[in-house]
Amino acid sequence: MITRRTFTAGLGAGALAGMPGALQASEYRGPNVVLVRFGGGVRRFETIDEAGTYAPYLRNHLAKRGVLIPDVRIEQLDGVDTSHAEGTLNILTGRYLGYRDVASRFQIDRLEPTEPTLFEYLREAFDIPAHQVLLINGEDRPQEEFFTFGMNPHYGITYRSEMLSLHRFKLHKYARQLEEGGLTDEARDAIVEAQSELLAADHREFAPEQSPAVQGFWDGWRRDYGDDGFRNARGDRLLTALATRALAELRPRLMMVNYQDPDYVHWGNPSHYTRAISIIDEGLERLVAAADADPFYRGNTVFVITPDCGRDANPLMDVPFQHHFNSRAAHETWALISGPGIVTDRVFDRVVDQSAIAPTVAAIMGFRAHRSENRAIDAVFA
Ligand SMILES: [Zn+2]
Fold first, then answer.
1. Which of 93, 158, 248, 365 sits CB 3.0–4.6 Å from 115 for a disulfide?
2. How does residue 15 score in pLDDT terms, banded at 50, 70 and 90?
3. 85 Cβ partners below 8 Å, 6+ apart?
4. Measured in angstroms, how far is the CA atom of residue 2 from the centroid of ligand 1?
5. Taking the model in full, what pTM does it have?
6. Distance from the CA of 335 to the center of ligand 1, in angstroms?
């Protein structure tokens, strides 16, 4: 039996009131930022190379609206693994190794941020509710369900983001089904069991409940897609569906979309990888179109698109496209930044370190990621 202490939003804020910054938070006036992890590890050739790209919208259209940085690198440091959770936390904290591995403690595959994330910096600086700082997550990466706040004592749960994922939807659905009642004993037992399985994945001492706004979001999702899970999109198309719906209904100021499906290439089929890149590219086109069509986001939203890590470029390997062997290509990524205040139709030809992404997002939004190891990329600002 797992004992859990649930930390509601109200209690969390009350208990931690008086923390530095808590009283100075001011109204946020934009711009909004959509941070897209072009994830699952991608090589430059299939994404930003004009000849090789499977992301024509990104390379041929969106790049003209902003600045393309073709040479972002993950530093070669001891202990840095070029992988998905690691790269994502480098992007979110502006540091390397700003996390600890809790796997040995819980026998699971999981990293926990030990440094403040962009979500926490933003909510510490501005008066923005948790549901307007969103992380959109895929369904088969439960180890990334816990990036919404770090363990840094000055930040943490008070300034967390909300998360939208099928994991969160199922937690909501089971709670609602139990509330609604009218179940046979058998059905009830099955729901309770499925619910405890999901809850058991979260080993944190304090598990924030989903805020009322997010619960309302899931109620609407459930009305549209039902309880069976067969009617909603899957994979990275689901992330696009969640993200576009969130823009319309929750009005996030900062939203990170953690695409991931190019990673299916670990199973060895390159067409899964290139098709997944195209699906992310379609998602990007839909996200940008949604922002362009909405007066709340139009002309007031910056897109920051960057991979978590690269992939091996060695065609002689038995299984190409891997990323755990510390090859040069696994350290090579890129970034595309576009929106108000950002230079347009330019390629920035200098080397940029992955740890510069977080301070750049911070500069766009008007706060400082002061624990970052790096500085904002000044050249992107018009
Ligand atoms: Zn992988």
1. 93
2. very low
3. 99, 110, 111, 141, 143, 144, 147
4. 31
5. 0.90
6. 19
**Quick check: is 129 in a domain?**
yes
The domain that holds 290 is classified in CATH as 3.40.720.10
Pairing state of beta strands 66-73 and 332-338? antiparallel
Residue 324 lies in a domain: yes
The answer, yes or no, to whether residue 18 has pLDDT greater than 60, is no
Q: Per the domain annotation, does 250 fall within a domain? A: yes
- pLDDT at site 300: 96
Spacing, Cα 114 to ligand 1 middle (Å) = 22
C-alpha of residue 87 to centroid of ligand 1, in Å? 11
- Residue 168 CA neighbour count, 13 Å, CB half: 27
Convert the pLDDT of each residue in 255-265 to its tens digit. Answer: 999 999 999 88
Quote the radius of gyration of the chain (alpha carbons, Å).
20
Tell me if 270 sits within 8 A of 320, measured CB to CB. Answer: yes
Domain of residue 125 covers 5-16+33-169+202-380
Cα 379–Cα 159–Cα 152 angle in degrees, nearest 5: 85
Q: Are 39 and 307 in contact (CB under 8 A)?
A: yes
- Taking the centre of ligand 1 as the mean of its atom positions, its distance from the CA of residue 344, in whole angstroms, is 32
Before 70, cis peptide (omega within 30)?
no
Q: Using the mean position of ligand 1's atoms as its centre, give its distance from the Cα of residue 202 in Å.
A: 22
How far does residue 274's CA lie from ligand 1's centre (Å)?
15
Tell me how far apart the alpha carbons of residues 241 and 254 are, in angstroms, rounded to a whole number: 17
Determine, yes or no, domain membership for 69.
yes
Cα–ligand 1 centroid distance for 200 (angstroms): 24
How many domains does one find in the chain?
1
